[in-house]
Amino acid sequence: MSLKYPKCAYAQVDLLAGKDQFPIGCVLKDGKILRAFNAVDTFRTPITNLMSLRCSRFASGGLAYTSDEKVYRTSYLDATVFTEIKSLSAYDPFFIEQKTGDDTDLVLFMDSDYVCLRNGGYFSSPLSAELRCGVLRCGRVFGFDSYNGQLLKWSGEGSYKDWEPGISGAGQAYLDCLGGEVWSVFDFEDELVALQDNGIIRISVAGNPENFRIIDNFSMPTLFRNTAAVVGKGIYFCAEGGLYCYRGGKVNKIGGLISEDAQYPDVALCHLGKYYVVGATSATLSRRAVYMYDTVENTFQIVNADAYYLAADNRSLLGYAANAIYRIQPTGKYSFGCGKFDFGSSSRKLLTSLEADCDEDVEVSISNGRFTRTVAAGGKTRLNMRGVNFSVTVKGSGEVRSLKLNAEVRK
């Protein structure tokens, strides 16, 4: 009597080629795992409940306000240090930047008042136009009314101080358009681009005010407020369904980690050509995390910090969590989730080996759902591990150029 052994086929999967990668502290670029940005605890006690102002990037530091309606400023030399701006009351403010000689005025709009910050001091004055958002263009402030999100208002040629109505002065126009109320507006590609609850408007404001008009109006899924930022040649923002980019009069969805994993983001901003999403809950991690999208390299990653505010100084980007401030920089270990693999079969199979081309300090953990085996990656490693589905995680600080898993699969 002869024994019959089950027939098997040899199979191999490329662990860096799947669609379910989850990079924390690294990126997948050109089929390689590269160390990227990570969060390093500075062990400082931050101000709690910070919320970033819209478009909160400027050369001399950062601005934030808190849930108790106070405004703070960070230093460009050290963004871990916050200075309260004379206990100013602010409810959902925004600001513009304006050059005045050799100085830059940072003008905060706070309902019916404006506050101008200059050279460490400030002065305030009542504002004739109450605005919820606005932008400086061609010497005028263009914004949308605090109580009517489709009412566009503009200042005279004297900028934020000039609200005297006239043919060439201040004025307003009601935009009867789809998409609901406007909550953010940008000076983009020589026109205004306004983001609404459910749409985007492109507005021409060239020449005389009587020539101001809507050029395009795009319908969108519900947009998340305060997630819009100009990065390079596009305006990136989050909406129900994921990450989107407005560029050249078109809206495109950006597939990847933010679209697939980030839930209910609070705010986003641009820093050195990268788009950061703050306050979103990770569906995979079941907690808040910071997402980064490199718009040039088209790479995603998660920065492992439960941050609610981001600012920058002359050294790096910083994330502010409940009990710590993190410097976000390319250092420390990373974690890369490769996803689950069944080699195209629902039957049990035998993992025979792992083939890795990588630097030192890289380890691979393989789980079959019942137990996990961790090995030091490098060359070919025998596994002899059985199961139906396998999940793989790579941890370390070195570059991984190739990572493949071999198995015997029953026919």
Plain-language structure description:
With 411 residues, this protein is an all-beta fold. The protein folds into two domains: 8-36 and 336-410, Jelly Rolls, CATH 2.60.120; 39-334, YVTN repeat-like/Quinoprotein amine dehydrogenase (Methylamine Dehydrogenase, Chain H, 7 Propeller), CATH 2.130.10.10. The protein contains one helix and 40 strands. The protein is elongated.
pLDDT average, as an integer?
A: 87
Fraction of residues in β-strands: over 45%
Strand order in space, largest sheet: 2-34-39-36-37
How far apart are the first and last residues' alpha carbons, in Å? 23 Å
Name of the top-level CATH class of the largest domain:
Mainly Beta
Radius of gyration: 26 Å
Helix count, DSSP H or I runs of 4 or more residues? 1
Helix content: under 10%
Query: So, CATH architecture of the largest domain?
Result: 7 Propeller
User: What coarse outline follows from CA principal-axis ratios?
Assistant: elongated
User: Which ranges are low-confidence, i.e. pLDDT below 50, for 5 or more consecutive residues?
Assistant: none
What is the CATH homologous superfamily assignment of the largest domain? YVTN repeat-like/Quinoprotein amine dehydrogenase
Would you give the CATH topology of the largest domain?
A: Methylamine Dehydrogenase, Chain H
Number of domains: 2
Outline:
The protein has 411 residues and is mainly beta. The protein has 2 domains: 8-36 and 336-410, Jelly Rolls (Sandwich), CATH 2.60.120; 39-334, 7 Propeller (Methylamine Dehydrogenase, Chain H). The longest helix is centred in the middle third of the chain and has 5 residues, at 257-261.
